[in-house]
């Protein structure tokens, strides 16, 4: 557990220093028509976590085969995210850099998605020559799913913490000790970040945001970890069960991208149709929205974890996930019809 403790301590120590630097160098996120937070908030939480993770990982994992490849890839992600936070980068540049980092991980970072398990009950689905391309796709997809979930104080950080906790348990049970160590470090860094980002009784709003450098880094590291755990030699976590650990970010991202494309809009155009926006329009406070989504994430994660431990067939886990995703998509699509009545009921209840 010392990895978790040192990750937390270094993040807590680095964050105030970087907050002061952010005000000096104008690394601030200001409110606009899409962002409704109060005041200019430093976007250096990702840098603080990245610093803590790099230092502790170098101490614990520098002599392993996977460290330098993973370090180079994650550094690329953090730098690209930082530049995007500074002034914005073209979508093509961001995705090219992310794909390059994914390639580095696949070749030198010890994570290749070679199989998808028995998804439909007809036998193992192996990827063969598509292993490296699919690994890159998975890494980039998960990284951006967490990036898109970063919309409220404590939301993305909490989702990453929940996912990391389930993955750490799976890594420990499958004997993936290097993955387990890195997840402990990541969990400590997240705990330190949430001390400054979560709405707490003594903290009415976030003092720092993670920025794209943080959300992309978190998603990238979690994607690396889930590939490692699902491809483990012993007691591997089935990919179908792992989907449940990422349920909220994945379902919301796929729904948005597909919905925008089908309606003729740019899939990467920013809007206010995320799950947290919809719940907010239904009349819930930001803190309530975050806790509702975190509760759902824990529930989904438990389905995946205990389904795996109970020996539920992978095809059942996969089809169950698709069924939940379908219900989720239909419900959210029709949320507008429910928002006004729900909002009115909540206002009446609050009188």
Architecture overview:
The strands form two sheets. A two-stranded antiparallel sheet has the order 1-2. Helices cover 71% and strands 3% of the residues. It has one domain (2-350). It is mainly alpha-helical and 351 residues long. Residues 342-351 have low confidence and may be disordered.
Brief write-up:
This protein has helices at 2-25, 45-61, 67-87, 91-108, 131-148, 155-173, 177-197, 211-230, 239-245, 247-262, 275-281, 286-309, 314-333, 335-350; strands spanning 28-29, 41-42, 115-117, 125-126. The chain has 351 residues and is mainly α. α1 crosses α7 and α4 packs across α5 (131-148).
Q: How many beta-strand segments?
A: 4
- What profile does the largest beta sheet have? 2 strands, antiparallel
Low-confidence stretches: 342-351
**What spatial form do the alpha-carbon principal axes imply?**
globular
Measured as a percent range, the helix fraction is: over 70%
Indicate the mean pLDDT: 89
Task: Summarize the helix and strand pattern as letters.
Answer: HEEHHHEEHHHHHHHHHH
Strand content: under 5%
Note the gap between the termini.
47 Å
Strand adjacency order, main sheet: 1-2
Look at the helices and sheets and give the structural class: mainly alpha
Number of domains: 1
Helix segment count?
A: 14
Roughly how many Å is the radius of gyration?
20 Å
Protein traits:
71% helix; two-stranded antiparallel sheet; 3% strand; mainly alpha; 14 helices
């Amino acid at each position: 557990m010392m990895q978790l403790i040192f990750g937390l301590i270094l993040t807590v120590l680095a964050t105030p220093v970087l907050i002061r630097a952010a005000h000096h160098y104008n690394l601030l996120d200001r409110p606009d028509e899409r962002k409704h937070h109060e005041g200019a908030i430093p976007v250096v939480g990702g840098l603080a976590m990245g610093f803590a993770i790099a230092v502790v990982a170098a101490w614990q994992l520098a002599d392993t085969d996977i460290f330098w490849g993973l370090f180079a890839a994650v550094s690329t992600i953090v730098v690209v995210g930082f530049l995007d936070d500074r002034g914005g980068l073209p979508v093509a540049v961001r995705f090219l850099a992310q794909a390059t980092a994914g390639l580095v991980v696949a070749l030198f970072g010890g994570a290749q998605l070679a199989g998808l398990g028995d998804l439909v009950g007809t036998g193992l689905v192996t990827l063969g020559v598509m292993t490296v391309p699919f690994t890159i796709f998975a890494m980039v997809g998960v990284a951006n799913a967490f990036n898109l979930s970063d919309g409220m104080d404590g939301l993305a950080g909490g989702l990453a913490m929940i996912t990391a906790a389930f993955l750490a348990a799976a890594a420990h049970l499958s004997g993936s000790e290097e993955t387990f160590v890195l997840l402990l470090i990541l969990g400590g860094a997240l705990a330190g970040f949430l001390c400054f980002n979560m709405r707490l009784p003594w903290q009415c709003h976030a003092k720092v945001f993670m920025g794209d450098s943080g959300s992309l880094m978190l998603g990238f590291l979690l994607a690396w970890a889930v590939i490692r755990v699902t491809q483990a030699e012993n007691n591997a976590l089935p990919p179908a069960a792992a989907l449940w650990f990422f349920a909220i970010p994945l379902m919301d991202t796929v729904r948005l991208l597909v919905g925008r494309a089908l309606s003729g809009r740019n899939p990467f155009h920013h809007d206010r149709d995320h799950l947290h926006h919809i719940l907010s329009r239904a009349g819930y406070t930001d803190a309530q929205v975050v806790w509702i989504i975190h509760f759902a994430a824990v529930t989904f994660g438990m389905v995946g974890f205990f389904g795996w431990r109970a020996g539920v067939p992978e095809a059942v886990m996969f089809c169950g996930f698709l069924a939940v995703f379908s219900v989720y998509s239909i419900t959210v699509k029709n949320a507008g019809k429910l928002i006004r009545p729900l909002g009115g009921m909540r206002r009446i209840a609050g009188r």
